Fold these 2 entries.
Entry 1:
Amino acid sequence: MTPRTIVRAAFAAAVLASVLLTAPAHAQKAGKRVEDLLAKMTLEEKIGQLNLVSGHHAVTGPYTRSDVRSAILKGEAGGLFNVYGAAYTRGLQEMATTQTRLGIPLLLGFDVLHGYRTIFPVPLAQAATFDMAAIEQAERIAATEASAAGVNWIFAPMLDHSRDPRWGRVVESFGESAWLGARIGEARVRGLQGRSLKSPDSVAACAKHFAGNGATEGGREYSGGDISVRAMRDQQLPPFKAAVDAGARCVMAAFNAVDGIPGVANDTLLRDILRREWGFSGVVVSDFGAIEELIVHGVAENPADAGRQALRAGTDIDMESRTFVTQLAALVREGKVLASELDDAVRRILVLKEELGLFDDPFARSSPEREAATVGRADHFQAARAMAEKSMVLLKNDRDTLPFSTKLQRIAVIGPLADGKADTLGPWAANGNPEDATTLLAGVRRVVGDTADVLHATGGTIDRTSPADIAAAVKLAARAEAVILALGERSTMSGESASRSSLDLPGDQLALARAVIALGKPTVVVLFNGRPLTLEDLDREAPAILEAWFPGSEGGLAAARILFGLAEPQGRLPMTFPRSVGQIPIYHDERPTGRPAGQQPKPYTTGYQDVGPTPLYPFGHGLTYTTFFMGPPRLDRPVMAGGETATVSVDVMNTGPRTGTAHVQLYIRHRLARVSRPVKELRGFARITLPPGGVGIVKMPIGEAELAFWQPEGRMAPPEAGRIEVMAGPDSATLKSIILEYRPSGSGRQAQRSGG
Ligand code: BGC
């Protein structure tokens, strides 16, 4: 080392030391009740509040069950998770409030990702509804049910942005549009937290996994990709920012590292962005065991180092690694963690408990009467069915194979997913009971009643189909007038720890489908799965394909109602379906290249030699039972000034034989900006239901928020003056466009420079 570098190193160490010994600037005092309580707490009691212990019902990580009762009595649990049931949670709250010195009630958390007992379609399917009111309502119902069972904190919404369907957790996500993810994040937080957090039917929402958890490498679970600042700001963070702006009271720090620092120790993410920049005042909980995993990541030397880094970075609650509870007391005594930092974390937890009304009445949510009257109510199941109908996507429908006539006499329902109750519910079905699920077979029987014979064969299992299974299925199908093939993934093939390297239909299901389709009967394939699959062969051969996802408690009935025309297919793909795994990542908002692909393959243009540049089904794709003409987008003003909103109108006509709902999507492209912008980005959508021959107009706003992106100088803002291509149509690949001039105030000079 030269003397100069020694001086520099010493300077850096001095800066570091001053940072290490200084409390973060944003600490705030809470109300009197919390401050009085804090003043009475011992060091151990404070640390106990930071510990979150898994209870009896489920464990998602490699840990043994904790002794919940002794953790509460020893004051070593500020919260529990995976506990539910009114009587049971009431007992736990009683123990905490009457048998501990200070009687502090418990946070009781649970993963309620698509319903508590009434199971809604999986989140990716919910995204396919493009219906924020329905999503908010589903969360309201989930919160109402879970809270009646004593839950006061839900580990949702999951807001990880991913472009890789190999990653099993895309099933929990909103798909590939960060803009749509932001709208969904807001709707979910509103639904979970309700009008007031104090209300016994509200729960605290926890946006997860902060941040960059979906940017996996190769779709491998628990891997972390390299994320540029731009990718972070334009794709990963906006859904979280929207959830925080909507009032989310909790954020879960992710397993993965961003720029080399895992989420729980990442003070750039937790302190600089989340708390300082966004003003978040709620609690940060670690993902399961993530604090201890700092050692495995190779950034912490031992548990003490891991605990110190996590607390100092802004993680308030330790989920299941027991690092805080074993290490923090010594760290505080040795001055490696400031007492004020510990107090800040405890204060935030106590404030959340106060906001939830737990100090006023810790038993308000644990109500056996409300639980009995609320959980799995008939109107909740109806809402689940309505949402399932909205979420299913008609991928293909040659020669109007669908809808089937209700006058059919004999229908074959074939396939390993036809009658799988758990697979109908989906991978993260909280307290859902598979016995409640209406499978596709049951749904078809319900819809056709006594008027038709419904024949059924499993055609083998999801993983295995023998020649005898195929022969039996073909024999059965030959007797029917129409065939429904129920194919796809087992629900456990999607979700956490469920990455796949192939996205083909598992097992020999394609062979089964081919043999049955070859009979030439009117045949529809109904797919149950939690991610985009590679379906080129199936698409070539099957006359009709309905993507049903994992549709929840009433999913089979919803699918049957669509198949027989009692409901119309309304879902649109929230994630691109590739032709092959080799095309991944493939998504609608790709960046331009200097050598774009043309209609015909051409050397030295982007793409592959062995597959075309387009996906099998683009983002936003979804057919209906009628056809629509959509005119080009029109603008209410050719020039949009700063602070203004432009309105985009699209004329729609139902040109088909049935009443139907058109879904118009709005995309933009900055034709000229200081940084290269995506070729299209979703920025709006609207629906209109029209009778045959009916015409109507949909209107969609574009404001400055829709134009904003991460600017080179480091802020989220609309660009300088310029030309914005505004595109509208039924999906991301079928668009008509118009140019909008954007001229923010005082942009005369810039406008000229950017050609505006
Ligand atoms: C998951 C989280 C979940 C937590 C608690 C973790 O393994 O990544 O999404 O909330 O477990 O169950």
Entry 2:
Amino acid sequence: MSAPSGTGKTTLVERLVQTTPALRMSRSYTSRAARASERDGVDYHFIPRDEFQARIAALAFLEWADVFGNLYGTSATDTEAILAGGEDLVLVIDVQGARQVRARGIENTAIFVLPPSAAILERRLRGRSQDSDEQIRRRLSVACREVADVAEYDYVVVNDEVEPSVGRLRAIIEAERARASRMRDVTSDIVRTFRKESPCP
Ligand code: 5GP
């Protein structure tokens, strides 16, 4: 899932994983300093820039990107462990990261969360009041470039209100899980019950 900064995607994903079975949110690594409201190991794994660069060199990231001058990445081993446990995983990553996931041929569904308008995004960023004027201007200019890439995604959710937006995200996940290609094991078990005694009449 990608969305410009301030679109409210973290709130949406937190609600989504609370209300959807077998769905987890990935915890990224970042070289950015923690904000006052953030906790290490909860919001992100906050690590020094040189440690992040050493992890890049060790190919520890499934994907990583430089966003606003800070480094962000998804751990390859954390991701593999969760998927091996049979759960689905939500990666909240930027456009560059989403491209890397696609380029690696990893099975994924790409969702772009849009704010209802640029003016509403700016109001939300200012309301959050965690960033300076200069940072807000930078985030808006990055957002302007990011929304231009929305056509690369499979689905779009406009985050007007939290609950309806979470409902639309859950509907996307349920539809993706119901794809015949992902239901093969269940399907063949059910088909077998019809043929238990004899072939079809
Ligand atoms: P923030 O600093 O506001 O938490 O996040 C800034 C941007 O970094 C957001 O667009 C967010 O999606 C992106 N981001 C967070 N974690 C990752 C990650 O692991 N990989 C990539 N590629 N982007 C990330």
